[in-house]
Task: structure prediction
Amino acid sequence: MTLLDQVTAIVKYIALAGILSHVVGEALPRRWFHHDRFPYRTCAWEREGKFYESLGIRRWKDRLPDKSKYTRHTFTKEMRGHESQDSLIRFLQETCVAELVHWVLTLVAVPLYFYVPTPLGWVVATVYALSNLPFICIQRYNRPRLRRILKRKLETA
Result:
């Protein structure tokens, strides 16, 4: 397999995975996602997001690409503009969907090892898998913050 063949196969694989994950993620019923249940509820070790703050998430989270800024008809992930309870609940569901999609993309990197069984394929598959972890962290960091806002709304209602 030539280097060009390897790169072409890798680009096709990653593009297909990205497109399919977007389509499936948008199609999943939001009622399936509960921010307060496993696997999406906050774990004790996350300390309501403090763990992610220790990773410096506030400095880098807004520098990563956000699909909702580039695709039409996608629920906006900007914190501003979500004042209603329904909007906050939907935002929480969207964080769950995004987390699931990034976990799936992490797992989808494994077959890439076998699709392009070369050192380049292995390196790209590893980097591709690891590149999804910051996006999972962002969802898990934002969720307790959104839950606190929702709780305040419910208490004042």
Summary: Residues 3-156 form one domain. The chain has six helices and no strands. The two ends are 63 Å apart (CA to CA). The longest helix spans residues 85-115.
